[in-house]
Predict the 3D structure of the following.
Amino acid sequence: MKIYALSDEKFTPNELLFASIKRLCNGGASMIQYRNKSGSHNEKELSKISEFCASVGVSFIINDDALLAKRVGAAGVHVGKDDGGVGRARDILGDNAIIGASCYDSCELAIQAQNEGASYTAFGAVFSSPTKPNATCCGLEVISKAKELLKVPVCAIGGINASNIASVAKAGADYAAVVSALYTKDQIEQNLLELKRAIKI
């Protein structure tokens, strides 16, 4: 199972974003999603981040906005139920882009997303999440069921940390999407190392 790191306005404000993403890459994150719900985006900075991530072999994904992803040269986009759909994102970004889809706790939504061309499907929150306290609850049994039904990779998100990530791996997830546990005590590289060690327990 690989680590899918997410940025966050609180933990990675704009002035720290590039430095934080470099540290995430250095620490071994396989994919990084820029998630900023404030609507204030520094596109020049995001373009630099896209170039940097591509140069070190890390996929840089934009949350919600396929047009922003295209403008900054990101590897792809992650869409939720209100973001225009997988098909529209694929039309905007082309066949080679990574298109992720939030499926909450629904394998039916995931099958639909896969049929529309999603590159991966994401389920959660698998645990209570400090960054999304009102998120739909999704048990790990849904992850296991999704692995049986889907051909595309399955990502688990929500409240994942070093104390519970092994259970996510055991459920069969291909990716563990992590937010707050990455940034504890400003020890990004160490936190990633602890998460990776915990997966193998």
